[in-house]
Design a protein that fits this description.
homodimer; Arc Repressor Mutant, subunit A; 3 domains; two-stranded antiparallel ribbon; 14 helices; disordered N terminus; disordered C terminus; DNA-binding
Chain lengths: 292, 292
DNA sequence: GGATTTATGGAATTAATATTTCATAATGCG
DNA sequence: CGCATTATGAAATATTAATTCCATAAATCC
């Protein structure tokens, strides 16, 4: 019998509880076993993939020590423990879409606040994955070229999309690019838009249900001959009609609110791209504006 | 000898070329082998971890067919092919941090716009992963309880953090929670803040370098006895001093701009949490506000 | 400081897993 | 239709990997 209870009745079923179990006992583990414990937490992937012998070698212990470690945690043997490490990889890899639907269910049934938070994280991650697949370089280049040639860049968005617009305005400002954020506070939008010319350009962001004011103003801008780059959610968006270049960004939603992460990432890439282009192809040696 | 060349000289080294090789030959593959091919593309994870016997069973073929399939692709045997499937999982799992640093280098050396975009996506993803680890439920509960009890929720943020504040204001508005976004446009912030009382509460978001105005106003709010929930970036943030509850959110940066995704996700979770709590524990049956 | 318990290393054993082989079935071709 | 070729299934074999066992070394306790 060992100093610590030989076997916890129930072996951890998932990686998190396994991790917790290890951390809890960490202090009073025999030297070699502790060595394995540390290795396991530091290199979980190796344990998922390796064989008992190879892992033992990497951790500088005997294979038998590995098995003792597993048994100490309540597992039958090394193989049973390894299964948990493999399961972890599977889940981590398993499509975020699945995770998201699972979390949606969970939240519907009144799970804790943590579940809601996880849901938003999953929604954002999914959206980022999607947008990463769907945006193509050619569009990106065109949009950047178009905006880089503009005298003033007008940024237009309402409601849900407004945060994206305000971040664009902030970023372009920092990058010393003349920008006009079309604000709604004082009801002066029409006048602000009136000054736009074909030498300017506009970035417009809108998702279903498209704010009527945004569409209306997009139309006005188009009529004034202002080139338009749009970030929207489908080919059927009314914006697609007015825009010279448009991006389809499908943001996942959770608890009734859509993520903005994908739009934000795209917006930022456009801003930096415009700044780089303005600085000229020669300026490429220091393309990274160090601003916070 | 089989109808198709028995063994491609060089076996695919990575999953993508393996996939391509399979797709290319798909049409002229013997029935059982084709069955394996389809299974392999549909369930790559199973192949990574399963044993020849278990995979064969899942795909309804004999283990030997599995080996023939591997050899047809130029591998030595099943084990060699499986290695490619495992490698794929490893890479997919490999820390986003590594990817991010790689992309940063790439961008510094003047890579295309696509690389910049990927960088922002990676930065956002990393931030989300981090925040998901660091936020704990107890804090979340406390923050939600605090805000749920407020008459009016004041939302305060400047510059980079402002988009988060505007999204919070939008969300709380939709959720019919009385909200006051402290805007800076007309320079009336001081007056707006002056109306706040201990019965209200405030959400303040600020990251280094902390906008002086935000800190100053946070202090004022604290002096007025307004409970404060802060989202900031370190324990040394001046906000931590004034806040009753604060969250540490470390956003990764790229090309000089930090992601906002993690803060956004946290902010949304708080908003929904407050709305749920207000609706009362009984209202839990329909916790999902269907608003777009 | 000696006795007893506990931990460790290393080899032996057992279990599992991949691979090969061979008989048979299916397919294609003249 | 019949022969040759290719594909398939099933079991035997070889290989590899996990587990157990035992001798020895530390550590702990009286």
């Amino acid at each position: 019998m060992s100093a610590i209870d030989k076997a916890t009745a129930a072996p951890p079923r998932d990686f998190e509880s396994l991790r917790a179990a290890i951390l809890e006992r960490r202090q009073n583990l025999p030297k070699r076993i502790a060595q394995v414990a540390a290795y396991a937490l530091d290199n979980p992937d190796d344990i998922a993939f390796g064989t008992a012998a190879s892992i033992a070698a990497s951790a500088s212990v005997q294979p038998s020590t590995l098995i003792r470690f597993a048994q100490l945690l309540g597992f039958d043997g090394f193989t049973a423990m390894q299964a948990v490490f493999r399961e972890r990889l599977r889940e981590r890899t398993s499509s975020y879409d699945d995770r998201l639907t699972a979390l949606r269910d969970k939240a519907e049934n009144g799970a804790g606040h943590r579940a809601i938070f996880d849901g938003f994280v999953a929604a954002a991650t999914t959206s980022l994955q999607d947008v990463s697949r769907s945006v193509d370089e050619a569009h990106l280049d065109q949009a950047i070229t178009l905006l880089a040639g503009a005298e003033t860049i007008h940024v237009l968005a309402r409601r849900r999309s407004y945060p994206v617009a305000s971040y664009i305005a902030y970023a372009l400002g920092k990058l010393q690019i003349r920008t006009q954020l079309i604000e709604s506070a004082a009801g002066m939008e029409a006048e602000m838009i009136g000054f736009a010319t074909a030498k300017d350009a506009a970035v417009i962001i809108s998702f279903a249900p498209y704010a009527p004011a945004t569409i209306e103003q997009a139309e006005t801008l188009a009529r004034l001959g202002v080139p338009i780059v749009a970030i929207t959610d489908s080919a059927f968006s009314p914006l697609a009609e007015f825009a010279d270049i448009w991006f389809e960004v499908a943001e996942a939603d959770f608890a009734g609110f859509r993520s903005l992460s994908a739009s934000m990432a795209l917006a930022m890439a456009i801003c930096i791209g415009v700044a780089e282009k303005r600085r000229g192809p020669a300026g490429r040696s220091s393309p990274e504006p160090k601003i916070r």
